[in-house]
């Protein structure tokens, strides 16, 4: 199990520059978006670093490799997570990674499969 606030290094993938060393209150997986100092980054890789203490390995910190990206034009903050696509549609996946089951690449505007909840 991961600690509630895991120390995390955020590295810019192309230059390996450390953007931030912070504690995050939730786990981020590859493909999700992260806002940091007014910029939006997409997470490419998540790694963990462990330390050996008293014969057991303990999670020490996470390392996120990110790239700067544009914010998806259709996204909504839902329960603390960014959800892409139109969340008023029945088919929306309520996910940071995939828009919907029928039209995963989008866009949601004028989608012929749209069904209001």
Using brief descriptors, characterize the structure shown.
five-stranded mixed sheet, mainly beta, 117 residues
Give a written overview of the molecule.
With 117 residues, the protein is an all-beta fold. It folds into 2 domains: 6-68, no CATH class; 72-117, no CATH class. Helices cover 0% and strands 47% of the residues. It is built from no helices and 7 strands. The protein has strands spanning 6-12, 17-24, 33-36, 39-53, 56-68, 75-78, 81-84. A 5-stranded mixed sheet has the order 2-1-5-4-3, with no helix packed on it. A two-stranded antiparallel sheet has the order 6-7. A hairpin with a 2-residue loop joins strand 3 and strand 4. The protein is elongated and about 60 Å long. The chain starts with 5 loop residues before the first strand and ends in a 33-residue tail after the last strand. 12% of the residues are buried.
